[in-house]
Specification:
Blueprint (H helix, E strand, L loop, with lengths): L1 E2 L1 H10 L11 E4 L4 H13 L3 H13 L1 H6 L4 H7 L1 H14 L3 H4 L5 H21 L11 E6 L20 E6 L5 H4 L1 H17 L19
Length: about 220
Protein backbone atom coordinates (compact mmCIF):
# COMPACT_ATOMS: atom_id res chain seq x y z
CA UNK A 1 0.00 0.00 0.00
CA UNK A 2 1.09 3.58 -0.45
CA UNK A 3 0.04 7.09 0.47
CA UNK A 4 0.90 10.30 -1.43
CA UNK A 5 4.30 9.78 -3.13
CA UNK A 6 4.38 6.27 -1.71
CA UNK A 7 1.28 5.59 -3.78
CA UNK A 8 2.67 7.33 -6.88
CA UNK A 9 5.72 5.06 -6.64
CA UNK A 10 3.54 2.05 -5.88
CA UNK A 11 1.70 2.49 -9.17
CA UNK A 12 5.02 1.96 -10.97
CA UNK A 13 5.26 -1.51 -9.40
CA UNK A 14 1.58 -2.33 -9.79
CA UNK A 15 1.51 -1.46 -13.51
CA UNK A 16 4.81 -3.00 -14.57
CA UNK A 17 4.34 -6.20 -16.62
CA UNK A 18 7.90 -7.14 -15.68
CA UNK A 19 6.84 -7.36 -12.03
CA UNK A 20 3.72 -9.44 -12.64
CA UNK A 21 3.66 -12.07 -9.92
CA UNK A 22 5.77 -9.96 -7.57
CA UNK A 23 2.76 -8.26 -5.97
CA UNK A 24 -0.54 -9.74 -4.84
CA UNK A 25 -2.52 -6.50 -4.54
CA UNK A 26 -2.12 -2.74 -4.25
CA UNK A 27 -3.96 -0.21 -2.08
CA UNK A 28 -3.60 3.40 -3.27
CA UNK A 29 -4.32 6.43 -1.09
CA UNK A 30 -4.03 10.05 -2.29
CA UNK A 31 -1.39 9.39 -4.93
CA UNK A 32 -2.39 8.76 -8.58
CA UNK A 33 -0.27 7.12 -11.23
CA UNK A 34 1.34 10.08 -13.02
CA UNK A 35 0.72 8.46 -16.41
CA UNK A 36 -2.98 8.06 -15.64
CA UNK A 37 -3.04 11.68 -14.47
CA UNK A 38 -1.50 12.80 -17.76
CA UNK A 39 -4.00 10.78 -19.79
CA UNK A 40 -6.86 12.17 -17.69
CA UNK A 41 -5.70 15.71 -18.48
CA UNK A 42 -5.26 14.96 -22.18
CA UNK A 43 -8.71 13.43 -22.55
CA UNK A 44 -10.38 16.51 -21.07
CA UNK A 45 -8.33 18.95 -23.11
CA UNK A 46 -9.10 17.14 -26.38
CA UNK A 47 -12.86 17.05 -25.77
CA UNK A 48 -13.62 20.08 -23.61
CA UNK A 49 -17.07 20.26 -22.08
CA UNK A 50 -18.38 22.39 -19.23
CA UNK A 51 -17.98 19.39 -16.91
CA UNK A 52 -14.47 18.48 -18.03
CA UNK A 53 -13.25 22.07 -17.94
CA UNK A 54 -14.67 22.47 -14.43
CA UNK A 55 -12.78 19.35 -13.36
CA UNK A 56 -9.57 20.62 -14.96
CA UNK A 57 -9.90 23.99 -13.29
CA UNK A 58 -10.65 22.41 -9.93
CA UNK A 59 -7.61 20.13 -10.06
CA UNK A 60 -5.45 22.97 -11.37
CA UNK A 61 -6.26 25.03 -8.30
CA UNK A 62 -5.58 22.07 -6.01
CA UNK A 63 -2.20 21.51 -7.67
CA UNK A 64 -0.81 24.96 -6.79
CA UNK A 65 1.93 23.42 -4.65
CA UNK A 66 3.21 21.34 -7.60
CA UNK A 67 3.93 24.52 -9.56
CA UNK A 68 5.61 26.05 -6.51
CA UNK A 69 7.87 23.01 -6.03
CA UNK A 70 9.22 23.43 -9.57
CA UNK A 71 10.73 26.77 -8.54
CA UNK A 72 14.52 26.31 -8.27
CA UNK A 73 16.00 26.40 -4.74
CA UNK A 74 13.13 28.31 -3.09
CA UNK A 75 11.18 25.24 -1.86
CA UNK A 76 14.29 23.78 -0.25
CA UNK A 77 15.01 27.07 1.50
CA UNK A 78 11.45 27.33 2.80
CA UNK A 79 11.34 23.75 4.05
CA UNK A 80 14.68 24.08 5.81
CA UNK A 81 13.54 27.43 7.24
CA UNK A 82 10.19 28.81 8.39
CA UNK A 83 7.86 26.38 6.59
CA UNK A 84 9.62 23.32 7.97
CA UNK A 85 9.40 24.67 11.52
CA UNK A 86 5.75 25.60 11.24
CA UNK A 87 4.49 22.72 9.09
CA UNK A 88 3.45 20.40 11.96
CA UNK A 89 1.27 23.16 13.45
CA UNK A 90 -0.16 24.01 10.00
CA UNK A 91 -1.04 20.39 9.32
CA UNK A 92 -2.61 19.94 12.75
CA UNK A 93 -4.78 22.99 12.17
CA UNK A 94 -5.87 21.93 8.67
CA UNK A 95 -6.56 18.29 9.57
CA UNK A 96 -7.74 19.01 13.13
CA UNK A 97 -5.11 16.72 14.60
CA UNK A 98 -3.87 16.62 18.15
CA UNK A 99 -0.14 16.74 18.79
CA UNK A 100 -0.28 13.10 19.89
CA UNK A 101 -1.89 12.05 16.60
CA UNK A 102 0.47 14.08 14.40
CA UNK A 103 3.76 12.27 15.19
CA UNK A 104 5.84 14.52 12.92
CA UNK A 105 9.45 13.39 12.53
CA UNK A 106 12.27 15.60 13.74
CA UNK A 107 13.82 15.22 10.27
CA UNK A 108 10.69 16.48 8.48
CA UNK A 109 12.21 19.81 7.25
CA UNK A 110 15.21 18.10 5.67
CA UNK A 111 13.14 15.21 4.34
CA UNK A 112 10.68 17.60 2.69
CA UNK A 113 13.49 19.71 1.20
CA UNK A 114 15.13 16.61 -0.27
CA UNK A 115 11.76 15.39 -1.58
CA UNK A 116 11.20 18.45 -3.74
CA UNK A 117 13.28 16.84 -6.49
CA UNK A 118 10.65 14.10 -6.87
CA UNK A 119 8.29 16.63 -8.45
CA UNK A 120 10.91 18.11 -10.75
CA UNK A 121 12.21 14.73 -11.86
CA UNK A 122 8.85 13.10 -12.56
CA UNK A 123 5.75 15.27 -12.82
CA UNK A 124 6.44 17.37 -15.90
CA UNK A 125 7.82 14.47 -17.95
CA UNK A 126 4.98 12.09 -17.17
CA UNK A 127 2.22 14.65 -17.72
CA UNK A 128 3.72 15.69 -21.07
CA UNK A 129 4.32 12.12 -22.31
CA UNK A 130 2.07 9.74 -20.36
CA UNK A 131 2.43 6.04 -21.11
CA UNK A 132 -0.90 4.54 -22.17
CA UNK A 133 0.14 0.97 -21.37
CA UNK A 134 0.34 1.40 -17.59
CA UNK A 135 -2.35 -1.14 -16.70
CA UNK A 136 -2.41 -2.62 -13.21
CA UNK A 137 -1.33 -6.26 -13.16
CA UNK A 138 -2.88 -6.83 -9.71
CA UNK A 139 -6.19 -6.07 -8.00
CA UNK A 140 -6.27 -2.45 -6.86
CA UNK A 141 -8.06 -0.93 -3.91
CA UNK A 142 -8.47 2.83 -4.27
CA UNK A 143 -9.23 4.78 -1.10
CA UNK A 144 -10.37 8.35 -1.82
CA UNK A 145 -10.52 10.97 0.94
CA UNK A 146 -13.35 13.21 -0.24
CA UNK A 147 -11.97 16.33 1.51
CA UNK A 148 -8.45 16.04 0.11
CA UNK A 149 -7.37 19.65 -0.62
CA UNK A 150 -4.74 18.50 -3.14
CA UNK A 151 -6.42 15.80 -5.22
CA UNK A 152 -9.95 15.93 -6.60
CA UNK A 153 -12.01 12.72 -6.36
CA UNK A 154 -12.81 13.24 -10.08
CA UNK A 155 -9.17 12.52 -10.87
CA UNK A 156 -9.97 8.81 -10.49
CA UNK A 157 -13.20 8.74 -12.51
CA UNK A 158 -11.58 6.83 -15.39
CA UNK A 159 -9.38 4.56 -13.32
CA UNK A 160 -11.17 1.37 -14.33
CA UNK A 161 -9.55 1.83 -17.76
CA UNK A 162 -6.17 1.08 -16.19
CA UNK A 163 -7.17 -1.08 -13.23
CA UNK A 164 -9.17 -4.07 -14.57
CA UNK A 165 -9.89 -5.31 -11.04
CA UNK A 166 -10.73 -2.21 -8.99
CA UNK A 167 -12.38 -1.57 -5.64
CA UNK A 168 -13.06 2.08 -4.88
CA UNK A 169 -13.83 3.31 -1.38
CA UNK A 170 -14.57 6.89 -0.35
CA UNK A 171 -14.11 8.26 3.13
CA UNK A 172 -15.01 11.64 4.62
CA UNK A 173 -11.47 12.73 5.47
CA UNK A 174 -8.64 14.98 4.37
CA UNK A 175 -5.31 14.21 2.74
CA UNK A 176 -3.58 12.82 5.84
CA UNK A 177 -5.89 9.83 6.20
CA UNK A 178 -3.19 7.54 7.70
CA UNK A 179 -2.99 9.98 10.63
CA UNK A 180 -6.66 10.88 11.02
CA UNK A 181 -8.32 7.47 10.38
CA UNK A 182 -5.66 4.79 10.90
CA UNK A 183 -8.26 2.35 12.27
CA UNK A 184 -10.52 2.56 9.22
CA UNK A 185 -7.55 2.40 6.87
CA UNK A 186 -6.06 -0.67 8.57
CA UNK A 187 -9.43 -2.46 8.47
CA UNK A 188 -9.89 -1.81 4.75
CA UNK A 189 -6.36 -2.91 3.87
CA UNK A 190 -6.51 -6.11 5.90
CA UNK A 191 -9.97 -6.92 4.53
CA UNK A 192 -8.78 -6.45 0.94
CA UNK A 193 -5.63 -8.53 1.51
CA UNK A 194 -7.64 -11.34 3.10
CA UNK A 195 -10.13 -11.39 0.23
CA UNK A 196 -7.34 -11.48 -2.37
CA UNK A 197 -5.71 -14.38 -0.52
CA UNK A 198 -9.01 -16.22 -0.30
CA UNK A 199 -9.65 -15.76 -4.02
CA UNK A 200 -12.87 -13.77 -3.58
CA UNK A 201 -11.20 -10.87 -5.40
CA UNK A 202 -10.40 -12.10 -8.93
CA UNK A 203 -6.93 -11.92 -10.41
CA UNK A 204 -6.27 -9.62 -13.36
CA UNK A 205 -6.75 -11.61 -16.60
CA UNK A 206 -3.47 -11.87 -18.58
CA UNK A 207 -5.22 -10.49 -21.69
CA UNK A 208 -5.84 -7.20 -19.85
CA UNK A 209 -2.11 -6.60 -19.29
CA UNK A 210 -0.06 -5.17 -22.20
CA UNK A 211 2.86 -7.26 -23.37
CA UNK A 212 6.34 -6.24 -22.21
CA UNK A 213 7.98 -4.05 -24.84
CA UNK A 214 11.66 -4.29 -25.52
CA UNK A 215 13.99 -1.42 -26.31
CA UNK A 216 13.51 2.27 -25.44
CA UNK A 217 10.01 3.58 -24.85
Amino acid sequence: MGHDWGSVQGWEFATSPRLRGGLASFTSISGPCLDHFGLWLGDRLREPTARSLTQLLGQGVRSWYVYALHTPKLPEALWRGPLGRRWPAIRRAVERLSEADDRSSATLPEDAANGAWLYRANVRERLRRPRADRVATVPVQLIVPTRDPYLSPHLYDDLDRWAPVLRRRSVEAGHWLPLTRPDRLADWISEFVDEVRAGSVPAVPPDDVPAVRSGPH
